[in-house]
Specification:
By secondary structure, the protein is mainly beta. It has one domain (5-166). Helix content is 0%, strand content 64%. It contains no helices and 7 strands. The chain starts with 8 loop residues before the first strand and ends in a 37-residue tail after the last strand.
Length: 189
């Protein structure tokens, strides 16, 4: 294909693309008060995790809940019981990358890269409660419509020939290897 940039035409393409991305690891401590005064913690686990996400400003808000189950002994380690409590949370996940030039509404996707997991459970300072430390991590993406501008040629037969020449118009940009493929140009008007 032999030609100059002046011989090329441009087209604007409307497409869906990832316009925002973020990740957040967090830990939370919950205080569980069982029906009996605990002697020893025998086990702790998290189940029934549910969550939803929506964009708020330049972050994504993840709202969720899970059940904390604590197996403990009481009455001087002579009896056991499982205490269950549902815990709700709100997590603000900042977007490390966000392109605000979007058309219309956006779609928010969140997934847990680390499910809520109990990393410590111990009898609390008041001796009638149990302190549970939980860790979790989310990765989020914001998808929206954006506009791209591409260069096109009139003759598709020229695509078979690999000898592309743009005259002197790109002399100052000899090395395209340094370009970041994540960067989008949204308005070339």
């Amino acid at each position: 294909m032999s030609g100059t940039l002046k011989d090329m035409q441009s087209r604007e393409i409307i497409t869906k693309a990832v316009i925002g991305r973020g990740r957040k690891f967090s830990q939370a401590t919950h205080t569980i008060t069982p029906s009996n005064t605990p002697s020893t913690i025998l086990g702790a686990w998290i189940i029934n995790h549910t969550y939803s996400a929506e964009k708020t400003g330049e972050s994504v808000e993840v709202v969720g809940s899970y059940d904390v189950n604590i197996w403990y002994s009481y009455d001087n380690n002579t009896k056991t019981e499982v205490s269950k409590e549902t815990v709700s949370y709100v997590e603000q996940v900042p977007l490390s990358y966000y392109d605000g030039h979007v058309r219309g509404s956006v779609e928010v996707m969140a997934h847990e890269t680390q499910q809520p997991n109990c990393i410590e459970a111990k009898v609390g300072g008041s001796l009638d409660s149990i302190m549970v430390r939980v860790e979790r991590e989310f990765a989020v993406e914001v998808v929206g419509e954006t506009k791209m501008c591409v260069l096109v040629t009139d003759n598709c037969d020229d695509l078979e020939d690999k000898d592309v020449h743009f005259d002197d118009e790109f002399d100052e940009m000899d090395d395209f290897d340094d370009l970041d493929p994540e960067v989008m140009i949204d308005d070339l008007d």
